[in-house]
Write a sequence for this structure.
C-alpha cells in the first residue's frame, strides 16, 4: 500500500508584487510504500523541503494532487488526520522544543489532541524509550546535546503514533556522535516500529542506509532506485553537485582507466574486498599497462 | 615565525558552582604564521573554548595566550586592543549576527570600529566581498534578502575586512549542501593563499580538514591530544576512531587493506591519492608482506 502519493504535482511559491511565481516542483508522480525507508537527496533549492511540506499539508499543491494515507491534503477536513499520521522533524533542534521539561515537550501534541492522562503517560514513556531518552524525562531540554534534542523532537512525533515520519535534514547541525545517535533511532523506528521514513539529507552515508533513494534536481526527480542503483551514476550525480560515497567514487575513477571493477560499491568492507580482488588479478592483469594518473 | 602560542592555558566554567567544569586543561599550542590549521574534536572537547581565548573573548583561568609575541591580557591597554584586532573570529552560523540595513554597512562595521578612514573602509569592503565570491551588486541590498549561503559569506566577509593576521572559523560549512560547502571552503583556501594569513578551521569533517589544512589539532576532554601534519594525524586513525571521530571512508579501506597484509599507504583520504596508489600497485604487482 502507498502511504504517500503525488499525481502530476506542481508547486510554485508566489513571486511577490508584480513578479512571476517561482516554480519549485514540476509534474512529480511519486508513490511511497508503507513501511519503507526512503532518502531524498538534492542540493539546496532543488525542492526537497517543499516536497516534504506538501506531504503533511503545510503547503498545498498549485497543480496536481498529494495524498497521505489516501487522503487529499488540499481538503481542510483531512488535515488533522493527516498531521496525526505524518509527523515532521526539522533541522534545528533548538527551534522545535518548547517545554521546560523533556516529558512535557513529548506530551505537547498529545495534550492538544486531548489524549487521556494515563494513556499520555504510557505513550510518552514508550516514545522516550524508543529514542533512548527515558533517563532524561525530567531533564531540561536546553541542557541536552544537539543529538539528544533531536531525539526528543522525534519522540514528540512518535507519541502521536504516526504511520509516517518525515525528517528534513535532522542531522545537519549535529556532530558525528549526534548524527550516529539520530540515525540509529531512525533505523530502529523503521525496522522495529514499522514507521515509514522519509529522510531528507545531504549525507551520503545516511542515504545509503535507506531502501530507496530519490535524487531531486530543479524540481524534478532525477534518479529513483536502491542506493546501489542510484550511486552507480557517479558522473550524473557529480554533474548536479552531489557527493557520492567515496567507495563508489573510487570505483568510478578506476573505471575511467578501463579497469573492470563493479560499478556501484557502497560500504567500506565491500570496497576493501573489491580492491583485494583487483590486486590479486581477479579483474584482469594490468601489470603491463601504463597509467598516466 | 610563531603567530599564536598558548602556555598552560586552562579554563574552568562555573567556578564554585555545582556545574564547575574544566573545559581546557593545560593547553600548549604553537601555530606558525601562514599555517592553515584544522581543529577537530567531539562536541565538548574544548574546541570552541580554545578559539574563544585566541581573541580574548574568554579570559584564561590559568596560563597565557600570546598573539604575534604579545600577551593578549597584558597590562598595557592600547597594546592589548591592538593585539586583539590581529585575530578575527567567525562564529558558528555567523549569518545570525548580520544586523545592518545594507550588505555594505554590515561588512564596514568592523573596519569602522577600527577608526579607519572612509577610503580604506571602502577598499576593504570591496576586497572582502571579492574574497567570498560575491558581486558588488549586492552591496546596497539588505543582507536579509539574501539566501542562507550568501548571508553566511557576507558575515565571513565582515571578519575578513578586519584584515586579521589570524582568521579563525568555527564550522563555516555547517548546515550547507555539498556545493555550498565546497564553495565556502575553496574561498577560504584562496583567501589563505592570497593573503598569506594564518587560518584556523574548526570542523567535524575530517575530509574537509584533510583537503585544506597543513596541520591538525585534535582535542579531547579539554586537552590537545595531537598537533601534527595531516598525514601524521591520519596515520593514527585507530586513535581517532577511539575518540569517536569520523575518518574518511577511503582511509578506513586502506587501513583495512594494510591490516590484511597488502603493502599500501594508509595516509590516504582523497579519491585522487587512492586511485594513484591502486594504479601504482597494479603496475608494480600487488605485494603481500
Amino acid at each position: 500500500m502507498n502511504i504517500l502519493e503525488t499525481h502530476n504535482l506542481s508547486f510554485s511559491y508566489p513571486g511577490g508584487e508584480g513578479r512571476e511565481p517561482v516554480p519549485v516542483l514540476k509534474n512529480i508522480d511519486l508513490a511511497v510504500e508503507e513501511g519503507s525507508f526512503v532518502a531524498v537527496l538534492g542540493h539546496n533549492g532543488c525542492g526537497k523541503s517543499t516536497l516534504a511540506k506538501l506531504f503533511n499539508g503545510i503547503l498545498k499543491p498549485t497543480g496536481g494532487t498529494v495524498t497521505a494515507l489516501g487522503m487529499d491534503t488540499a481538503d481542510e477536513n483531512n488535515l488533522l488526520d493527516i498531521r496525526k499520521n505524518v509527523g515532521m522533524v526539522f533541522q534545528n533542534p533548538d527551534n522545535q522544543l518548547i517545554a521546560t521539561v523533556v516529558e512535557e515537550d513529548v506530551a505537547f501534541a498529545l495534550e492538544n489532541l486531548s489524549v487521556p492522562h494515563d494513556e499520555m503517560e504510557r505513550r510518552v514513556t514508550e516514545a522516550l524509550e524508543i529514542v533512548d531518552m527515558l533517563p532524561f524525562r525530567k531533564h531540561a531540554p536546553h541542557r541536552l546535546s544537539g543529538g539528544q534534542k533531536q531525539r526528543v523532537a522525534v519522540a514528540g512525533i512518535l507519541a502521536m503514533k504516526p504511520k509516517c515520519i518525515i525528517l528534513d535534514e535532522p542531522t545537519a547541525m549535529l556532530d558525528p556522535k549526534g548524527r550516529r545517535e539520530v540515525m540509529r533511532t531512525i533505523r530502529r523506528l523503521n525496522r522495529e516500529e514499522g514507521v515509514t521514513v522519509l529522510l531528507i539529507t545531504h549525507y551520503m552515508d545516511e542515504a545509503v542506509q535507506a531502501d530507496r533513494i530519490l535524487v531531486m534536481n530543479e524540481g524534478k526527480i532525477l534518479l529513483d532506485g536502491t542506493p546501489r542503483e542510484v550511486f552507480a551514476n557517479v558522473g550524473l550525480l557529480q554533474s548536479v553537485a552531489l557527493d557520492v560515497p567515496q567507495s563508489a567514487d573510487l570505483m568510478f575513477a578506476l573505471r575511467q582507466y578501463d579497469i573492470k571493477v563493479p560499478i556501484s560499491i557502497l560500504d567500506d568492507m565491500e570496497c576493501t574486498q573489491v580492491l583485494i580482488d583487483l590486486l590479486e588479478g581477479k579483474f584482469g592483469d594490468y601489470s603491463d599497462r601504463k597509467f598516466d594518473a | 615565525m610563531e603567530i599564536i602560542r598558548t602556555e598552560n592555558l586552562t579554563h574552568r566554567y562555573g567556578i564554585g558552582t555545582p556545574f564547575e567544569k574544566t573545559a581546557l586543561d593545560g593547553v600548549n599550542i604553537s601555530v606558525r604564521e601562514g599555517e592553515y590549521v584544522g581543529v577537530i574534536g567531539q562536541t565538548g572537547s574544548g574546541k570552541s573554548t580554545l578559539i574563544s581565548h585566541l581573541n580574548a573573548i574568554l579570559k584564561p583561568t590559568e596560563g597565557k595566550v600570546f598573539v604575534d609575541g604579545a600577551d593578549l591580557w597584558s597590562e598595557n591597554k592600547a597594546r592589548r586592543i591592538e593585539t586583539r584586532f590581529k585575530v578575527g573570529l567567525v562564529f558558528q552560523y555567523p549569518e545570525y549576527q548580520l544586523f545592518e540595513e545594507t550588505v555594505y554597512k554590515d561588512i564596514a562595521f568592523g573596519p569602522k570600529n577600527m577608526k579607519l578612514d572612509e577610503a580604506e573602509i571602502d577598499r576593504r569592503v570591496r576586497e572582502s566581498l571579492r574574497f567570498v565570491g560575491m558581486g558588488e551588486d549586492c552591496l546596497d541590498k539588505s543582507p536579509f534578502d539574501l539566501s542562507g549561503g550568501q548571508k553566511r559569506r557576507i558575515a565571513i566577509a565582515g571578519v575578513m575586512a578586519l584584515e586579521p593576521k589570524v582568521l579563525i572559523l568555527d564550522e563555516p560549512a555547517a548546515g550547507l549542501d555539498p556545493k555550498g560547502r565546497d564553495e565556502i571552503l575553496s574561498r577560504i583556501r584562496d583567501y589563505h593563499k592570497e593573503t598569506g594569513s594564518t587560518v584556523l578551521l574548526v570542523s567535524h569533517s575530517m575530509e574537509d580538514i584533510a583537503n585544506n589544512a597543513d596541520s591538525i589539532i585534535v582535542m579531547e576532554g579539554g586537552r590537545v591530544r595531537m598537533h601534527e601534519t595531516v598525514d601524521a594525524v591520519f596515520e593514527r586513525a585507530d586513535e581517532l576512531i577511539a575518540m569517536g571521530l569520523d575518518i574518511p571512508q577511503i582511509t578506513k579501506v586502506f587501513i583495512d587493506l594494510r591490516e590484511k597484509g597488502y603493502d599500501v599507504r594508509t595516509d590516504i583520504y582523497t579519491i585522487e591519492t587512492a586511485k594513484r596508489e591502486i594504479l601504482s600497485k597494479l603496475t608494480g604487482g600487488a605485494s603481500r608482506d
The longest helix of chain A spans residues 176-193.
